[in-house]
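Q: Give me the 3D complex with zinc ion.
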Amino acid sequence: MITQLTDFIWRYHDEMGSTSYLVVGKTRAAMIDCGGAGKQLMSWIRSITDLPVILLLTHAHPDHYGSAAEFDEVWLHEDDISALPVFEEAFSVMGVRPLDRKKLHSFADGHVFDLDGETLIACALKGHTPGSVVFVDEAQRCIFSGDAVGSGDIVLMSVPLAYDLSDYKRSLVAFLERSEPWANYTWHAGHYHQADRGEAEPPNTPFCELIPEMVSLCGALIAG
Ligand SMILES: [Zn+2]
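A: Here is the predicted complex, encoded as structure tokens.
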């Protein structure tokens, strides 16, 4: 299912339940995650833009990089690149092709992807994986959050290499301290169906207030 969200952003939701986003600048475009079903995404992207397009991954779970082979340039946080062998073995049952290391580029926290008119800032929000990030789009006032805080339903922390709750809480607090300028931004999560409650109820998407609530929740759980 494809939905145009703004003049510059499209949402792609695949049958595997993964949600990806296309962000189009003046001279470059970026796909944020690329689903898990291994569908032909590039033909859809080319129906929207002829610009060069890079793939930015929020984290290294295969339900977010299923179509990565279609992209010449793939970017992933350095800590999730280190974790790739563990994830590839743990999730091999999903049958997703391993990421091609020759196309893979690493970035660190704070890396800025300039799409010319659109800028995406990679901001660490670790826990779900060691290198989980959100991408902040200040021009469109939105945040692409992958699985870093869940998708309005669960935060999956029972996967290999996920942080324990004390470390996740520290990660949330660090994000909270730097995210004040983005307080009213719209969040776009990595599994939209979990947030979409149907026509009767509005989607339960993540939002900025979720972060301090998550900090409190982690504290309460740690305290028993
Ligand atoms: Zn994930």
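A quick observation: The pocket of zinc ion is lined by residues 59, 61, 128, 147 (CB under 6 Å).
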